[in-house]
């Protein structure tokens, strides 16, 4: 156990965080999607500690975070298509899976030994300041114990990882609230590997090409060639039921739009608001439901950010393996 420092997201806090990272320590930091558990992506011992702190299987590779496209190009091969989406959506909630540039120096633990690498340039000002101060690639999975609900506030990080990481930078609540969209650009056809903060429709429009859904052949539950794709994930303590128009006895109902609940993702039926609230509400509902309790969610449309919301909800509802 170590004492986890809670750092204010000011110049002193960011300088302290960069110092811990330079010494090989782990610091959770805010991004616009969720809080990340950051460590130097070039160091084997540090990336190994990220897996240990989360209890994450080592075959599940990490996203490396960079301050800008130029820095990202040191670690991966960008074709014209990749450069076009990077220029359009970075900084922002998009991760690109690209062929790795050989000998670029990322730890093979960070990439789980794959020939590809997942890269993201986050937009959150605290994440950007930290990347500038640190001056290297930060491997950062979501800052939660593996398989649990992702953190969108510093308090969520501490609830799951206090005593297992050196520090958390407190940047308040994350604005997007669901993880980045992961786009695979390592083959002929672009693939949506995880729906997230950039809607599929926006990617399709920018690429002017159809985006295939899912990882394609070769992926399975034990060895995901793709993102976050272990089927039971985001698991709260309570059982979760989806598509509910009303509560059954003993259920905590989470509403959306016209379906009123004990809590609501968005009374106005706004998908952006619903995504921003999703993980916090899932935690609140879990507390209200109590151990062995039950949570029901109203239906959410499968468009825009609704795709990412429904993906996370169906994993929260999946049988626990
Ligand atoms: O919004 C986000 O993406 C957050 C913030 C912190 O940036 N990070 C995040 O990381 O969600 P994580 O580790 O929870 O999810 C990253 C996913 C993993 O499920 C992994 O399977 C996938 O990215 N991934 C990483 N490298 C990959 C690769 N080379 N090919 C395919 N998938 C990859
Ligand atoms: Mg995660």
In short:
With 321 residues, the protein is of the alpha/beta class. The chain has helices at 11-22, 44-54, 69-72, 80-89, 125-134, 154-161, 200-207, 271-289, 306-317, and strands spanning 5-8, 27-30, 35-40, 63-65, 94-99, 116-120, 138-139, 167-170, 181-184, 191-194, 212-213, 239-241, 251-255, 263-264, 294-297. It folds into 2 domains: 5-213, DHBP synthase; 239-317, no CATH class.
Main pleated sheet: 11 strands, mixed
- CATH level 3 topology of the largest domain: DHBP synthase
**Overall number of strands:** 15
Mean pLDDT across residues: 94
Shape: globular
Q: How many structurally independent domains?
A: 2
| Rg over alpha carbons | 19 Å
Strand order of the largest sheet: 1-8-2-3-7-4-6-5-9-10-11
SS content category: alpha/beta
Low-confidence stretches: none
Number of discrete helical segments:
9
- The fourth-level CATH homologous superfamily of the largest domain is DHBP synthase
Highest CATH level, the class of the largest domain: Alpha Beta
